[in-house]
Amino acid sequence: MIPRISLAPLLCLWLAIPAYAAEDAPENAILFESRAGDKVEAFHGVMSVPENRADPKSRTIEVHYVRFAATGGHPGSPIVYLAGGPGGSGIDTAKGERFPLFMAMREFGDVIALDQRGTGLSEMAPKCVSDVVIPLDRVVARDESNRLLRQAAEQCGAFWRTSGFDPAGYTTVENARDLDALRVHLGADKITLWGISYGTHLALAAVKTMSPRIDRIVLASVEGLDQTVKLPSETDAYFDRLQAAVDLEPAAKAAFPDIKALMRRVHAKLDAEPVMLHVPTTGGPKDMLLTTENMQMAASTLISDPGSAAQLLMLYLAVDAGYTEPLAGLFGRFVVPGAPEAFRLMPLAMDVASGIGAQRLAQVQDEARSALLGDVLNYPMPQLTGVLGLDLGDGFRATAQSDIPVLVLTGTLDGRTYPREQQAAVAGLSNATTVTVANAGHNLFMVSPEVTEVIREFMRGDTPHTDLIKVPAPSFAPNM
After folding, report:
1. Is residue 13 domain-resident?
2. Of the residues 393, 428, 462, which one is the last residue of a structural domain?
3. What is the mean pLDDT of residues 64-73?
4. Shortest CA distance to 237 belongs to which of 120, 147, 372?
5. What is the pTM assigned to this prediction?
C-alpha cells in the first residue's frame, strides 16, 4: 500500500505572525502576500475553542484565520472560506491561484481565510511516524496490508493521546461548531460559507448545527455527509465521460479508442507479472513493485482534473508498451519505499469520524470487486473505518435539510466528486441553484472568469445568468 498521492505543488510561503496567548487576542494588522507577489493589507486573528466540547475537562486549542476587509459599499455577512482535504489550509489557499477570487469576494463582505482546527497555523499536533512498514518491494496480501495500516493508525492514536491530544476533538462536528464560534468571535449575526471538496462536507455539517445563522452558501465539488468514501461505480462512470471528451479529439481518439479496455489490459499484465521499479529517493534508488493496486493508487489522484487525467492516460499507454520509467519518476516524488506509515491527526480523524454507513459500505465492497480502481480511490478509507474509536454515526451522515440560498458548482470531468453524487448530497437543500461547468474537474474555481461572475451574481442575490459554463478540455492526444 502507498499513501494517497497529492500532485499539488507543496509550496508554502512563510508568514510572520506573532505568538498568541491562550485567550482570544485582538486581530493584528499584517501585509498579506500571495505567491504571485500580490500584496494586500489584512488582519490576522486567533480564537480559542475547546478541543473536544463533549469533554467538560477539555483543554482549549487555537484556531487561526486571516481577514480581508470588505471593499463594497454595503457589505454583508462575513464570508468564510472552507478549504478541502481534509487538512488543507485556507490561509495558504488564499496565497495561491485563487487569490483574485478571494479579493473579488470582498465586494460582498469581509472574507475570512480560515485555517480549520488541526490545519495550517492551527495545527498543533505533531505528525505521527509509526514503526509499521508496509512493504512495497513485494506483493502483500490485501488483508495483511489492511491489518498493518490499521495497526499503524491505532499506534498513532496512542501517540497523540500520550502527547495530550484528543483525537475525538478532530471531527467534522467539532469543526462545524468552530464556525459558529467564529461567527460570535467576529461579532456577526450570520456568516456566509464558501467551500470546496471537504470544505463542502463541513458546510453541510454546519447546516445541521447552525442553519439559522448562515446567510448563504457557495459550494464547489460537493462531498456529501455520507460520501467520504466514493462509489466505485461512479468512478467507472467518470471514465465514460472522460472517453466522451477524448473522442471529440481525433488524434486522442485514435490513441485511446477504449480507455477502460486499456486500463484493464494493464491491470491484467501487472496481476500476471508485477514490475520492479527503481524509485529515485534522496537516499538513492529504492525498489518498489508496480502492482495493479499501486497503479490504481496513482490513477485515483490523477483523475481529479482533466489535465492530470491526460497524464494518466499517457502513463497507462507507456506501461502497456512495457515502458515503466515514468512511473518510477512519479512515485519517486511522493513515495519512499521502506518508510514507515505516517499520519497527520486532523485529516485522519476527520475522515474516519465521518465514516461510512453499513449500507453504503456494503455497496462499495460489492462494486469494488469489478470496478476499474477497486476500493482505493479514498485510501486510507474505507480501510480504516472505525479506527481510533471514531464514528459520528448515521445521524450525522443523513442528508442536510435547509432552505438557505445555495450555489452549487459542478465539473463534468471531476474525478473525485461526481455529478450524480453531488446532486444527491444537496437534495435536501430546497433553495439550491446548480451551475454545471463543462470539461472542468475538481478544482474548478479558476477555470474561467465566468465562474467568478456566476458567484458574484449569486452573492448579489441575483439568479446566475446561466446554468452551464463551457471551458475547453485539455488535449488528450499523446505528445510523444
Report:
1. no
2. 393
3. 96
4. 372
5. 0.94
